[in-house]
Amino acid sequence: MRREGVPIIVVLPAAIGAAFFIVPLVGLIVRSPWGDALSALSAPETLEALKLSLIASLSATAVALVLGVPLAWVYARVAFPGRDLLRALTTLPMVLPPVVGGIALFLAFGRSGLLGAWLDNTFGITFPFTTAGVVMAEAFVAMPFLILTVEAGLRSMDRRYEEAARALGANRWRVFMRVTLPLIGPSLFAGAVLCWARALGEFGATITFAGNFPGVTQTMPLAVYLLLETNQEASFILSLVLLLVSLVVLVGLKDRWLGNA
Amino acid sequence: MSLDASIRLTLGPLDLDMSITVDQGEVVALLGPNGSGKTTLLRAIAGLAPFSSGQVRLDGKVLEDPATHVYVPTERRPIGFVFQDYLLFPHLTVQENVAFGLRSRGVARQVAAERATRWLDRVGLKDYARARPAELSGGQRQRVALARALAPDPRLLLLDEPLAALDATTRADVRRDLKRHLESFEGIRLVVTHDPLEAVALADRLIVMENGHLVQTGTAAEVTEHPRSQYVADLVGVNLLRGEAGNGSVKLASGQVVAAAGAELGEVFVVVHPRAVAVHRTHPEGSPRNVWSGRASSIELMGNRVRVRIDGAVPLVAEVTPAALRELNLVEGSEVWLSFKATDVGVYPA
To answer: How many A/B residue pairs have CB atoms within 8 Å?
Structure first.
């Protein structure tokens, strides 16, 4: 590294850019009514929303793991025509406005939707306006994070370890469970945490597809938005809670995700 | 009881066409330069590299034959494979690594752990059972890789450049240990290496391959005495020429004639040891029948000898003493004469 000063033409916009993110966070911390924090946090509606949020986001992560890891494996290991298109389609929710995702889910799994009508008529299963619907909306938006991270992990791992395992008599399932999964462990963990964090903060798709019923579909982000109109202080506090959770996740993942992934 | 493999495949620039047989009771080294297809052949035998035609048979049982669509998957072949950089599972302990093959073949956890411990004891690493591979030295890793491959009691042991990942200081020790373990293993043993020293030290028989094809096979002595390719000649450090023999001389492709005592008839190889080649600054007097002029293109000190590469009608390498070098006042580019006796020429059928 040459010992040179950083040019002002870079420093100035960089500083403004950083401030753009930091000032709102500081505002949230400074203007939060810390005195009421405890009562706001322990209000039954808050606890209910928090509990629902945790259950739904963890369930969505579980769904993403069960469905997303095999999908990532297929993307990384199986060459088939249309793979890139399929990957693009399953990545779409990352860039799609979540509300649009919610509408799409509604048209597919709503009571009169493409699959929803059949599910309702045949099994009596309905998703909209249920907690399962929340899980579905969250998984829809958050799973791509897991798929992409795990696929990248599978692609960058040294596949010769799998050959070594096969030469030792391990069948494909054992190779996958005992060698592949542990070796992509960091990617799997990072993908799962990113997916969970995204699910925890999900708003648009959830409110569109699952609605906003306290105790059933009203997650933390929904509660925050609703409280903004009725009880601003409480909504500030809840915002802060979500902020802290996200921050902890990001700092914890710094090396795995942003750094030497 | 033997391994019989004949394999034809094309992989990028490699055009492999090899048939080898390895009998029980002999250690065979597959020797060849980098890119000659040694590792690919080994992988094909293990079922890790598909081939277009040929057959892999172990103890008479067909493991793979594309013509009859027979393919026993790698995990069901009774093989042990020591990979070039060992590929010890980094997330498992040393003992778990060694027990992996046993567990994969359905041995109960407790039994597998005990047998792994015994193997670690045999390779002198009992105290490292709970260590991770990353904590071991290169030589220790090599021993773990060997124990891991041998623990499930395979019929066929395949080793891919088992010493290449080691630095020179530990290589000799590890090679000696490896030789001992190879000797005590009762199955069929096949070692891939590009290092002739390693091949000679470890194996009873060498199979030399180049560009995917068999060049020569035989004991170390047979191969070094009668090189059949430039590659082997370079390894052994002798001059190898090829030509048509007749009437006490050999006519080279370049048109030059080499006088050789006892030359047979037909296509032959001609070997001249560099020590037998004398170097002069003027046309030599006396009896030598083979005299050529040339130009010293490179001069290299090798131990207490100097190797002089001489370009001319017949490019040859001569070996002289440092004293002779000074006396002759030789530098790169010097015009020289070289000579050797007809009785110092080895000739054998090509």
So the answer is: 57
Structure tokens given for A115: 């699959």
Q: What ipTM was predicted for this assembly?
A: 0.83
Which of B74, B32, B7 is CA-nearest to residue B160?
A: B32
CATH number for the domain including B193?
A: 3.40.50.300
d(CA B150, CA A14): 59
Residue B35 has pLDDT above 80, yes or no: yes
Domains of chain A, start order: 8-258 (1.10.3720.10)
| B104:A161 CB<8 A | no
Q: In a mutagenesis test of the B interface, which of A157, A162, A166, A168 is the best target, namely the one with the most B β-carbons within 10 Å?
A: A168
A141 pLDDT band, cuts 50/70/90, is: very high
B243 and B212 within one domain: no
**Number of residues written out for chain B:** 350
pLDDT at position B333 is 87
**Model-level pTM?**
0.82
Q: Which two tokens stand for residue B134?
A: 């990353």
| Domain stops at, among B232, B251, B271 | B232
Q: Residues of B with CB below 8 A from A167's CB?
A: 46, 48, 74-75, 79-81, 149
State pLDDT tens for residues B147-194.
999 999 999 999 999 998 888 888 888 999 999 999 999 999 999 999
Domain tally for chain B?
A: 2
The minimal CB distance from A183 to the residues B48, B91, B149 is found for B91
pLDDT higher than 70, residue B263: no
- Residues 6 or more apart whose CB falls under 8 angstroms from that of A134 comprise A52, A56, A206, A210, A217, A219
